[in-house]
Design brief:
Elements: E1 11-13, E2 22-24, E3 34-38, H1 43-54, E4 58-63, H2 68-75, E5 79-82, E6 95-98, H3 107-115, E7 119-121, H4 122-130, E8 134-139, H5 144-157, E9 163-170, E10 175-178, E11 184-188, E12 203-206, H6 220-232, E13 239-243, H7 247-256, E14 261-265, E15 273-281, E16 284-291, E17 294-300, H8 307-321, H9 326-330, E18 344-349, E19 352-357, H10 362-376, E20 381-385, H11 390-395, H12 397-401, E21 409-412, H13 422-427, H14 430-439, E22 443-446, H15 450-460, E23 466-470, H16 476-488
Parallel strand pairs: 3-4, 3-6, 4-5, 6-7, 8-11, 8-12, 9-11, 12-13, 13-14, 19-23, 20-21, 20-23, 21-22
Antiparallel strand pairs: 1-2, 9-10, 15-16, 16-17, 18-19
Helix pairs in contact: 5-8, 6-7, 15-16
GO cellular component, one term: cytoplasm
EC number: 6.3.2.8
InterPro entries: Mur-like_cat_sf, Mur_ligase_C, Mur_ligase_C_dom_sf, Mur_ligase_cen, Mur_ligase_N, MurCDEF_pg_biosynth, UDP-N-AcMur_Ala_ligase_MurC
Length: about 500
C-alpha cells in the first residue's frame, strides 16, 4: 500500500443479533498497515492504537514518559519508545497520528513530513475509521464518556458486538476501545478544537451544550454553531438523538429545519423518549421509560445521580433506533457500573470512603456532589478539587465558586497547567478560587501540594466521612496516596 492510499475490499459483514447483513463495500482495511502514534500514552490515542492493533495493523509510537496505557500497548504488541526522536519513525511507516499536545517542532513529526508520511490528528483518523462503519457518535459538554461507554457495553450485553473508542477506560469492557464483529462503531465525539467535525456518523447523539473550551471558541454561540455543523455532518439518511430539554440543543434542532430525522429524550412528555415514576432507592434511580406515549418498560441504574437518567435515556433511544428490542436494552442498563474516574469508588478504610471523579466544569461539579450525597449520605463530604486550566478557571470563576455548596469542605491544590497562556496564569490562581468559594458560603482552603493535602486529610477525616478527589488533571494521585496512608495506619 502506498502511503497515500486507503485500502478497501468488497466485503460483507455479518451483523450481530437480529440485524440485516451490513453492506460494507468501502470498509477500511488496515491489516498490515504501519501506523506511528506520537503521544501514544493518552487515553484517546492509546485506545485508537489498541483498536488498530486488534484490526491487525502494526503500531509503533512514542511518549514523553511511561504509564499504564503505554504498558498495555506494549503488551498488545506495539513498539512504543519513551522520548521523542526522529529515529523513532521507521522508513516503512505509512501514516503518523499525533495527539493535540504535539507541537509543530516535534522531531518525529518533522521526520514524518520529510519522509512524506500522511499525518493525521487523532480525530481525523477516528473519522476515517468511522466512515467505514455505521458510526454512532456521542457528543455533549458533559457525559460523553459515560454515555458512549454505557452504549458500547449495553450493545454488547444484548448481543451486538460493537466496535468502540471512548475517552475513558470502560472498566467492564477492559479498555477504552475494542474491536467487534458488527458493523456498528460507537465513538466519543469531543467538541474541543472542533475535533468532532471530522466525524460523519450514521447516528449523532447530543447530550447537552454549554459554554466550555473558551480558549478555542469565541463564545457560547460559537459553540452552538459547532454542534450544528456536527449534526449537519450526520449521514443524510441518519438520525440525531438529542436532549429535548436543553435550550442550546433546541437551537441546533431548529437550524436543522427537518434536514435530519430527530429523536429527543428528556424528562418532559414533549420529548420522544422520557421517564415516568422516577424514584430513588438507596441512592439508585428506578423509573419507567416511554416513547411517544407508549411504555417501553422499566429499568434501574447502578450509576448514581439524576443526570445519569438522561444518559440512560440517550442510550435507550440509540439502541431502540438501531433495532434493539426495548426490553432487552432496559434489562441491562443496571449492569453498567460506570467508566474510569466518574464517581469511582476507590476504597473504604478506617470508616472513610474515598471516591475519584473527573468533573472539571461547574455543572459537572454540582451534579457529582449531589449524586454523592444521594448515594452515600456521608457524615461530612470533603472535595479535593484540582482546577483544570487557568483559562477555564478564569472564564467560569463565579460559577465555580458557587458549585461546591453540597460539600462541607473544599480543598483546593494548585491549578493543573495545560494549554494556558501567561496572561491566564497571571489573572487567577488556586488561592483566589478558594477565597471565592468561601465567599459563596462553603468552607474552602488552598493547600498547594498533594502531599500537604494528604497530610490535611489524615489529620481531619474520621469514620463516616467521605472525600472525593475531583478534576481532569492528576488529582487522582491524592486518592491513591491517601488510601495508601490509611492502609498503613490500619
Amino acid at each position: 500500500m502506498s502511503r497515500a492510499e486507503v485500502r478497501t475490499s468488497p466485503t460483507r459483514v455479518k451483523a450481530a443479533h437480529r440485524y440485516e447483513v451490513v453492506n460494507a463495500v468501502n470498509r477500511l482495511k488496515i491489516a498490515g498497515a504501519r501506523f506511528h502514534f506520537i503521544g501514544a500514552g493518552g487515553v484517546g490515542m492509546s485506545g485508537l492504537a489498541k483498536f488498530l492493533i486488534e484490526k491487525h495493523a502494526i503500531v509503533t509510537g512514542s511518549d514523553q514518559s511511561a504509564n499504564a496505557a503505554v504498558s498495555r500497548l506494549v503488551g498488545s504488541g506495539a513498539d512504543i519508545r519513551i522520548g521523542h526522536s526522529a529515529g523513532n519513525i521507521g522508513p516503512d511507516t505509512e501514516a503518523v497520528v499525533v495527539s493535540a499536545a504535539v507541537q509543530d517542532d516535534n522531531p518525529e513529526l518533522q521526520q514524518a513530513i520529510r519522509q512524506g508520511c500522511p499525518v493525521f490528528k487523532y480525530a481525523q483518523l477516528l473519522g476515517l475509521l468511522m466512515d467505514h462503519f455505521q458510526g454512532i457518535a456521542v457528543s455533549g459538554t458533559h457525559g460523553k464518556s459515560t454515555t458512549s461507554g454505557w452504549l458500547a457495553y449495553g450493545l454488547r450485553q444484548v448481543g451486538v458486538d460493537a466496535n468502540f473508542v471512548v475517552g475513558a477506560d470502560v472498566c467492564q469492557l477492559g479498555a477504552s476501545s475494542g474491536s467487534g464483529d458488527s458493523g456498528f462503531f460507537v465513538a466519543e465525539a469531543c467538541e474541543y478544537d472542533r475535533s468532532f467535525l471530522n466525524l460523519r456518523p450514521q447516528i449523532a447523539c447530543i447530550l447537552n451544550i454549554e459554554a466550555d473550551h473558551l480558549d478555542c471558541y469565541r463564545d457560547e454561540g460559537d459553540i452552538v454553531d459547532a454542534f450544528y455543523r456536527f449534526a449537519r455532518g450526520t449521514k443524510p439518511d441518519g438520525l440525531i438523538v438529542a436532549n429535548g430539554q436543553d435550550a442550546n440543543v433546541a437551537k441546533v434542532i431548529e437550524r436543522l429545519d427537518g434536514r435530519r430525522r430527530v429523536v429527543t429524550f428528556g424528562f418532559g412528555t414533549k420529548c420522544s423518549v422520557y421517564p415516568r415514576n422516577v424514584r430513588v432507592h438507596r441512592g439508585s434511580y428506578r423509573f419507567d421509560v416511554y416513547q411517544d406515549g407508549r411504555r417501553l418498560g422499566s429499568t434501574s441504574l447502578s450509576v448514581p445521580g439524576r443526570h445519569n437518567i438522561l444518559n440512560a435515556l440517550a442510550v435507550t433511544a440509540v439502541a431502540v433506533n438501531i433495532g434493539v428490542e426495548p426490553e432487552a436494552i432496559l434489562g441491562v442498563l443496571d449492569r453498567f457500573t460506570g467508566v474510569d474516574r466518574r464517581l469511582m469508588l476507590k476504597g473504604c478504610c478506617n470508616g472513610v470512603t474515598v471516591l475519584d471523579d473527573y468533573a472539571h466544569h461547574p455543572t459537572e461539579i454540582r451534579a457529582s456532589l449531589k449524586a454523592i450525597r444521594e448515594k452515600y449520605h456521608p457524615k461530612r463530604l470533603w472535595c479535593v478539587y484540582q482546577a483544570h486550566q487557568y483559562s477555564r478557571t478564569r472564564f467560569f470563576l463565579d460559577a465555580f465558586a458557587a458549585s461546591f455548596r453540597e460539600a462541607d469542605k473544599a480543598i483546593i491544590p494548585e491549578i493543573y497547567f495545560v494549554r494556558d497562556s501567561d496572561v491566564s496564569r497571571s489573572e487567577v490562581n488556586a488561592d483566589i478560587l478558594a477565597g471565592r468559594i468561601r465567599a459563596e458560603g462553603t468552607d474552602a482552603e488552598y493547600v498547594g501540594t498533594f502531599d500537604a493535602v494528604c497530610d490535611c486529610l489524615e489529620k481531619e477525616l474520621g469514620a463516616g466521612d467521605l472525600v472525593v478527589t475531583m478534576g481532569a488533571g492528576d488529582v487522582w494521585k491524592v486518592a491513591d496516596e491517601y488510601l495508601r496512608r490509611l492502609g498503613g495506619n490500619r
